[in-house]
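PROTEIN ENTRY
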Amino acid sequence: MRANIENLTQRVDQSLLAGVNPGAGILESAIHYALSVKGKRLRPLLFLTLLEAFGHDPLAYLDIASAIEYIHTYSLIHDDLPAMDNDDFRRGMPTVHKKFNEPIALLAGDTLLTMAFERLSWTEIKPDRLVHILRLLTAGIGKQGMAWGQVLDLEFRGDKSLIMEIHRRKTAEFIKAVFLSAAEIGELGQKERDWLGEAGIAIGVAFQLVDDLLDIEGDEAEVGKKLKKDEENRSPNAVLFFGPDVVKEMIDDSYRKARQLIGQAGIDFPPFLYLVERMVYRSK
C-alpha cells in the first residue's frame, strides 16, 4: 500500500514540474521553488487513490491531480504573505516571498492558479465532465469557499461561533471539491456523491483543527514553520476558544463521521483510507 502511495507521489512530483523551467527567469524560478519544496501532496493523492477505488487508472488523470496541487500551492504562497499570515517558513524552508520578494510571490501564486486551469484543459475526458470538475474546484476556492474563508479569518474579531465556518470555507470546501471531482469521473450516484462530499467537509474541518492544535502544542522543527502565532495574532484558533481537550474530541468526532460517510458511499480502498487517516492524525 505504501509503495503504491510513494509511486503516486513521485509521479505527481514529476508532473508538477512539467514545463516549468527555473532558468527561464525569476517568475518560473519562484514557481519551481514553491513546487519543489517537499510536501505531503495529500490532496492530489486523495484524488488519485479515489479514482483507483473506482477502478480507474490514476496515472491517466495526473493533469487534474497537478492542477489540484497548483491550486493548493498558490493558496499557501498567498497565505504566507505579510498581508495575510506573514510566515517566514513553510515546510522548513523560506517562504516564497522570503526567498524572492513579495511582488514575485504574489505573481507566482497568481500564475500557479492560472496554470491549474491550463493543466485541467489538457485532460482527455468528456467536455461536460471536465466542465463539471471546473465548477466543483472553482466553487471550492472562490467567493463561497477558500477566498471567503480567508476573508473571514482576516476579519475575525473573537466571535468563536464563526470558527467552524472559517475552517469549513478556508480548508474543507476545497477538499470536498477534490473528493467530488473524483466522484464525477467515477460516475457515482447522487446519494454516494452527497455522502462523499460531506466526508470531505468533515475531513477538511478535522485537518484545520489539527493545524490549530499543532500551533499550540506542536514541535516547530517538525512542523516546519513558526508556531504559537495564533494567540498573538488573535487568529480563529479553536484551541484558544474551546481548549485542547474539546478540540481533540472534535477532531475524533469529525474523523469518525468522515469514515462512516465514506463507508456509506461504498468506498473501502486501503490506500485512500490510509490517506484520510493521515490527513487527521499527523504531527505536521
User: Anything to note?
Assistant: The radius of gyration is 18 Å. The longest strand covers residues 89-90. The mean pLDDT is 94. Residues 146 and 170 are 4 Å apart (CA to CA).
